[in-house]
Amino acid sequence: MADVWVGSELGFLKGIDLKKSSFTNHGVAAKVDRSHEICAMCWTDDNENQMLLGLANGIVKTFDVTTKEFIADHDQPIGQGKLKGLFKWDGAVVTCMESGLLQVWKNDDNPTDVKVGSHVSAVRQNPLCPSQVGTGGQKNDLKLWDLNRPEEPIFRAKNVPNDFLDLQVPIWVTELGFLPGQGSQSRIAVGTGYHQVRLYDTKTQRRPVLNFDFGESPISALAVTDNEKKDRILGNPRADYWARESVVIVGNTTGTMGSIDLRKGQLSGHYKGFAGGIRCISCLDKQQMVASCGLDKFLRIHHLHNRKLLYKSSQHTDSRGTAVLSDRSRKRTADEESSEDNDDIWDKMDVVTSTSKPKRLQKKIKSTKKKKDKIEEASAGS
């Protein structure tokens, strides 16, 4: 059984078993091309026996992880542009396209259409209140929708104040995630195309309560985690509560990934080892791990807290990773459980290290050594 599933831009679904350091490829179509790019993935229910795969051409496939077969296709036209959002709600499949058309498919013939604005880049479901959906995009600020009454958004974000030249700050929501512990009163973390990470508290105000700059490149991936590493403050009963729900992992288009403490509004540290833009991040909360994939075609697993690289796919994937889905509830077989406990596997996993020095550093060392030798020769000659 796989611990992590990775979707690629050429239509391959890769199941990776981290214990055995092995993987299995499953092609979503007989023909390999970018029209079959896996843009979104989600589990059909809490049992996590089946997953939905949303392809760039608008087709939604159902994959059974137990039989390792594709068991259903939904090929109705679902809008213009790439698929940006896919999830299950109340027995229905919900899709959202880049054009801004969100559809609730309770049957194939008569979907419910919702216009969420143009140039959509991010669509996320609130895991604690499944009827809530957050959307945003370029010139399309954060909106919160209730699918039970989708005529108007229940929350519209307000842009930050004008800059020092009294010009409007441009809007570009690239990623978002719901912080745990709030239910229908949502706190939402947002990444922008202008390298900001913003925190919205929908019960207090429309403008962000925190605006944090991360690097110099657009935010391309964001994941919220239940942080079990609690900061205990004596005499403050809410300290553990805030610590659990205020950590987000963000990545950008130049391969920088970091952990941000939203309580303090500061960067906790960086996750290293990337060689290309980051496309997707998924937190394995139970194991305290972070899975990520991107343009360099590698899957990486880091420890959530000390940020060490624990696993790197032994070879390139067939194409660039576009989506990561972790198996949070997988139950191991009796043979697996008797050999090692699940948590012990992660604790005993060797940290991936590199003994070779970077090429630039090697060249610099050689150049310095040559200069030193020349100076010594000149001194000896005189």
TrEMBL record:
Gene name tied to this protein: WDR74_1
Organism ancestry: Eukaryota, Metazoa, Cnidaria, Anthozoa, Hexacorallia
Gene3D superfamilies per UniProt: YVTN repeat-like/Quinoprotein amine dehydrogenase (2.130.10.10)
Protein's name in the database: WD repeat-containing protein 74
SMART domains hit by this protein: WD40
Biological process per Gene Ontology, one example term: ribosomal large subunit biogenesis
Positions with biased composition (Basic residues): 357-372
UniProt-listed SUPFAM superfamilies: WD40 repeat-like
Cellular-component GO terms for this entry: nucleolus; preribosome, large subunit precursor
Comp. bias regions, Basic and acidic residues: 373-382
CDD domains tied to this protein: WDR74
